[in-house]
Write a structure and sequence with these properties.
alpha+beta, 4-stranded antiparallel β-sheet, 39% helix
């Protein structure tokens, strides 16, 4: 889950909740007096306390003296978005319904997923993945994805904590 923090008049910053270490997750949980499972469950519903605490802990990686009380974003400055892995799992699950119910068509699944790109940290990837999955489900050969020679390999533990829309797999930047 990606938390997009857009301070007033500034560029959006993306913080990947999956990049937290166990010790950091414990700090988040203690800070807002919730179990980690409750914190995670609150993210899709944009729980303000959960988002604030996670962003604060991730910001502390590069600003160790930042106090929780000093990080007080506006209620409309943070939203959550699904990362690429979560989008792919969501889309794969949706198209998987076709194997359980032969009455369901790829067109129907794609139509049901039409709002998914708006919930994604990378809407272009989400739309392309839905279309690729649709083509595959319809038995069409989807166009191969272009190879990016200098693009880093994507991993589940990639850290995306930087401003802008480009994803970073560098664990050294709190803003991607």
């Amino acid at each position: 889950m990606i938390i997009v923090y857009t301070p007033a008049g500034q560029e959006p910053e993306q913080y990947d909740a999956r990049s937290l270490m166990v010790s950091e997750a414990s700090i988040v949980a203690r800070t807002i007096d919730q179990k980690w499972g409750e914190v995670k469950a609150g993210l899709p519903d944009e729980d303000l306390d959960a988002m604030r605490a996670i962003v604060w802990v991730l910001k502390k990686r590069h600003a160790p003296t930042l106090r929780f009380g000093d990080f007080d974003p506006g209620v409309d400055e943070m939203v959550t978005r699904f990362d690429k892995t979560e989008i792919e799992e969501w889309v794969d699950g949706a198209f998987g319904v076709m194997s359980a119910d032969p009455e369901v068509t790829a067109e129907q699944v794609a139509h049901a997923l039409r709002e998914v790109p708006g919930a994604a940290a990378d809407p272009e990837h989400a739309a392309a993945y839905i279309e690729k999955s649709r083509a595959k489900a319809e038995g069409k050969d989807p166009e191969p994805e272009p190879e990016q020679a200098d693009a880093p390999a994507r991993t589940r533990s990639a850290k995306r904590t930087s401003s802008g829309s480009a994803a970073s797999t560098s664990g050294s930047s709190p803003t991607s």
